Amino acid sequence: MPAHDVLIIGAGLAGQRAALAAADAGASVAILSKVHPVRSHSVAAAGGINAALNPEDSWESHAYDTVKGSDYLGDQDAIEVMCREAPDEILWLEHAGVTFHRSPTGHLGTRAFGGASAARTYYVADITGQAILHVLYEQLMKHHETVDRYEEWFTTTLLQDESGRCVGCVARNIRDGRLEAFNAKSVILASGGAGQVFKPTTNALICTGDGIAQAYRIGAPLMDMEMIQYHPTTLAENGFLITEGARGEGAHLYNALGERFMEKYAPNKLELASRDVVSRAEQTEINEGRGFPDGTIALDITKVPRKRTLEALREIVNIGKDFAGVDITREPIHIKPGMHYIMGGVKTDVDGQTPIPGLYAAGEVACVSVHGGNRLGANSLLDTLIFGRRSGEHAAHRARGVAMPKAPASVLADAQGEIDAILTRPTGGRRISQIKEELGETMNQYVAVYRDAAGLETALEIVRRLKDEAPNAAIDDKGTIFNQDVLAAIELGYMLDCAEAIVVAAQERKESRGAQFRTDFPERNDAEWLHHITISLNGDGPEKGVAPVTMTRWEPQERTY
Amino acid sequence: MAEYTLKLRRYDPHTGEAPYYEEFQVDLEPHRSVLEAILQVKAQQDGSVGIRCSCRAAICGSCGVRINGRAGLACHTHLDKAAKTGVNADGRTILVEPMGNMPVIKDLIVDMDAVHWKKIQRVTPWLLAKEPVPEREYVVPHENMVDVTQTMACIQCGACVSDCLSMEVDPLFVGPAASAKAYRFVGDPRDAEQFERLKDLAEDPHGIYDCTHCFNCIEACPKGVAPMSQIMRLRRVASGDHHIEDRNNGSRHEHAFVKNIRRNGLLHEADLVPDSYGGKFHPRAVPELIASLPIVINGLRRGKMTPKKALLHEHKAPKEVKRIFDVVEGRDQRYELNLYISGTEDDESEAQA
Description:
The complex is a heterodimer. By secondary structure, chain A is of the alpha/beta class. Chain A has helices at 13-24, 59-69, 76-96, 128-142, 210-217, 245-248, 262-265, 275-287, 306-312, 314-324, 380-399, 410-423, 432-446, 453-469, 484-508, 526-529, and strands spanning 3-9, 29-33, 49-50, 110-111, 121-122, 147-151, 153-160, 166-173, 179-189, 222-223, 228-235, 252-254, 297-300, 333-342, 345-347, 359-361, 366-367, 450-451, 517-518, 531-538, 541-548. Chain A has 2 domains: 1-46 and 74-90 and 126-227 and 343-554, FAD/NAD(P)-binding domain, CATH 3.50.50; 231-338, Alpha-Beta Complex (Flavocytochrome C3, Chain A, domain 1). Chain A is globular. Chain A starts with a strand and ends in a 13-residue tail after the last strand. Chain B folds into 2 domains: 2-110, Ubiquitin-like (UB roll) (Roll); 112-268 and 315-353, Fumarate Reductase Iron-sulfur Protein, Chain B, domain 2 (Orthogonal Bundle), CATH 1.10.1060.10. Chain B has a 5-stranded mixed beta sheet. In chain B, strands 6-7 form a two-stranded antiparallel ribbon. The chains are: A alpha/beta, B alpha+beta. Chains A and B meet through helix 3, helix 4, helix 9, helix 10 and helix 13 of A and helix 1, helix 3 and helix 4 of B.
């Protein structure tokens, strides 16, 4: 049985940053991921990473923009930590080798992004996530003596000792089907979001809410789960992301009448208002009949000089060409709001600690909460890195005062029993793919940009029915080597837990704030709802709770852009 | 909607049986991707079909496969295009096989660790930062960062490795992906050990001079990294800027080509071998010439060359060739094979239009 001071589950930006920080602090580290680390979904982050590094900018300004963007639901102490530490993190990345864009003088250059009062987004063309992820992996290869990598291992369950401490996990080696118990003094969840709960989504197929559900199942509370970000510019047909960098570079949005409609909704920031505002504006235009016949809006990137587009937005030039048949340097591309990010997740403090001793969470799986009701573009990479690092450091320090746990052998037998139960399911039930499809379409219909009580009630009924059906969903593959069927069955269970928490939280919040817009409660209501909603597992079902919003210096104000 | 036949190469490692082909019918619009077709098969017909995939948008690099014999990303290949290309193209059948040059684990899944990632490890794939590390960022030219962005665009999908002909002949060849990774540091002004990196890759008999310019990696790469171009740039920097004369004779061999064409217009092979070793009478050339005698004799016997053609060469480079040399060599700056700097052919022709 492997045993490490710090075990990290998930190897995107948060996980890799945590691993490097924990190793740097002297801990023995394992990083475990169901895909090869460079396949992690952080790779798809396009536009950039925010930091007030420019001497004329200030972290306070960055923090205020983030608080306002969050619709005052973000915890201001955590936001202060993130924005204060952002400049040093950018420099750390730069020194590690990230090929950030330079200004003509050779210094770091920035681009504008939504909801920000200064151009403070650092970037590598429109492959910022990829560039950072691959550089972090370079560092993992460099530090192979201090960080053990378990690539293509699938976590089935988190382990707890009698006192409730999290002491490791059980994982299946995807390449041979072998189960292994990983003992660890501290466990950091960094396994990303749950975008696949929705269909379509900009998220990759691997984003199935594994970590959120794993933590929930051992009693960790989830927070802000109702806050689902719909990105303003996703391709109509398949939900692929068109980076906010396009609007940052100067692209405009038009309805079918040729009106630059953002003038109406955000007269000052126009297309660069925060994402919830732009998505809602688009959806309103579409709902009121001013969209194109295929239910879309036009994003006009021809406003950006062609040479600049080819250099700084090359990835979306390719996406337009390959996946929509459109040359974005010559004609507008049709887009609509699409599910992109979950602000909620496993509740943590600013060091990544969850209420379960020994369990940390960082990145999209976590909810610190720095994004509150709505995340600003280019703040998610920052979130992963800052809180990944802080979790790694804190977990390493904690490990010094804790004895190495040893899981009883029975945990493997239990986990094997669960897998055997999947393998021996009778055929003939609904297919996993059918249940997943119904889930995704349900969520996208009822738990999207606009919500109401009746729709949420319908969504909850369907999710609960699917939860009943899922344990009988048939699988075809009975093998041990790369059995993706059995993994899909486990992932489906994770997704359904996440979906239930999302819907229950959305039902609970009877107001409109950030990404949650209730047509039956269209106003923000600070008197009753300026607090987080938490969801914890109680027996078989979700139990609602509340947590206060931490405010340090910014009182809630009316939010206009 | 249109109907396609997906012909998948299957391999079930549990049975120990040889790989076999299985056909599936799918019904999808022609502009949908091969990956979507495979996922439809998995969802509706057979969940045991093995393929790595995640993002569906050509950014995660998981779904490298061979489609009608050519390596690429399944998510990045349209069904109609796939059905129209390849050996047995009939507009309807699409053959999907695992990538080459790597052991197959199951169905379309190959062991990238055994080959691809080993080779990446081989090139010291991390920045060896210049000292002292500045308090703020390294100040470096904008152009250099744009330049290395092309190799940073590599998503490690392995398509280039799959179709590398040199690696087929020499499995130890460092290969296209790792070479591109090496350029990412050699082209990065923040790296302190560019000479050492180049010296290492030039002196390695399986290093940068092992590439035979077949262009397969450029064709295969879904991200425009053009690994072969990066190999050529490594050679130019090694030989031209750092004057590394490698023991493989790679550098001199390249110079011999240039000299040969400048002089003859067309390649005159009889001069090439001796010139690669410093001229006919260079001590190093003599054993090489003797060693190449069997090849020469074979060529004579089969009539591929005659003593007259070999020794009394009549080519003389026409003026146009000389002019090309003058123009290229007269430039202040080297012409770099980098689409982020020079644009693609499309970009340029359209920009002029």
